[in-house]
Amino acid sequence: MLKKEIENLVDKGEMLPLMEQFYTIQGEGHHTGKAAYFIRVGGCDVGCHWCDVKESWNPDTHPPTHIDEIVSQAKSYSNTIVITGGEPLTWNMQPITSALKKEGLDIHIETSGAYPLTGIWDWICLSPKKMKLPQPEVYEKADELKVIVFNKHDFKFAEEQAAKISGNCQLYLQPEWSVREKMMPLIVDYVMKNPKWKISLQTHKYLEIP
C-alpha cells in the first residue's frame, strides 16, 4: 500500500498507529481488578514529564495497523476492551469503536480529553493534564475522573477539574508512581477529609503485570 493511501486511512481512523495490545488485569480506577484487553495507540503531544509510556508519544514509530486486524485480536480475549495511549483521541475513534460494538464488546477509553471526543464508549476515564486541558464535551460525558497527584498543588487542580464534571462521575486521586511513597500519606489524609474522592493505585505495577 502506498504511503499516501496509508496516511489517508489513518486520517479516517480505519488504520491506527498501534503500539501494543495485550490481555491483562485493569490496574487503575473504577474497574481495578477486572480482566480487560488493552489497545494502546501511539501518538500524544500532551507532554507529561512523568509519563511512564513516553515511547508512545511519536506515532511514526508505531506501525499503522488496520482496525479489522486489531478488532480480530481483541474479540478473542475479553468482553471488556480498554483503548489507551498515548492519547487515543488524537485519532478518529469512531471506526474502531463501531467495529468493536458490532462484536458486542464493552469499550472503555483512558484519555486526557485534550481532543474532541469521537467514538462509542461504555466507560470514559478522564485523566486531565495541566498542559492541555480537556475539551468541554469530555467533561460532560466522563464516567470517571482520575487525577494524577505528583505534588501537593495537584489537589487544587483536582478540585478545579471536579467542578467541571457531571454529578454522576466517580472521583479518583492516584499517586504518580515515582513519588507514591511521598504523596500517599497526603492523599490518604485528603480523601479522609474529602470523602467524595477515592484512591486509585497502579495495582498492576504491584502485581508485576502489564
Automatic annotation (TrEMBL):
Sorted alphabetically, the keyword list is: 4Fe-4S, Iron, Iron-sulfur, Lyase, Magnesium, Metal-binding, Queuosine biosynthesis, S-adenosyl-L-methionine
Pfam families membership: Radical_SAM (PF04055)
User: What note does UniProt attach to the cofactor annotation?
Assistant: Binds 1 S-adenosyl-L-methionine per subunit. Binds 1 [4Fe-4S] cluster. The cluster is coordinated with 3 cysteines and an exchangeable S-adenosyl-L-methionine.
Q: Enumerate the catalysed reactions.
A: 6-carboxy-5,6,7,8-tetrahydropterin + H(+) = 7-carboxy-7-carbaguanine + NH4(+)
Name the domain of life: Bacteria
| Top-level EC class | lyase
Q: Which residues bind S-adenosyl-L-methionine?
A: W50, C51, D52, G86, S127, P128, K129
EC number from the UniProt entry: 4.3.99.3
Q: Which residues bind [4Fe-4S] cluster?
A: C44, C48, C51
Q: Which GO terms describe its biological process?
A: tRNA queuosine(34) biosynthetic process
Q: Which residues form the Radical SAM core domain?
A: 31-210
Write down the required cofactor(s).
Answer: S-adenosyl-L-methionine; [4Fe-4S] cluster; Mg(2+)
Give residues annotated as binding substrate: I25, Q26, G27, R40, T84, P210
Q: What is its pathway?
A: Purine metabolism; 7-cyano-7-deazaguanine biosynthesis
Q: Which GO terms describe its molecular function?
A: 4 iron, 4 sulfur cluster binding; carbon-nitrogen lyase activity; magnesium ion binding; S-adenosyl-L-methionine binding
Its annotated function is as follows: Catalyzes the complex heterocyclic radical-mediated conversion of 6-carboxy-5,6,7,8-tetrahydropterin (CPH4) to 7-carboxy-7-deazaguanine (CDG), a step common to the biosynthetic pathways of all 7-deazapurine-containing compounds.
* Subunit record text: Homodimer.
Family classification? Belongs to the radical SAM superfamily. 7-carboxy-7-deazaguanine synthase family.
Q: Which HAMAP family match?
A: QueE
State what protein this is by name. Answer: 7-carboxy-7-deazaguanine synthase
Organism per entry: Psychroflexus halocasei
Tell me the lineage of the source organism.
Bacteria, Pseudomonadati, Bacteroidota, Flavobacteriia, Flavobacteriales
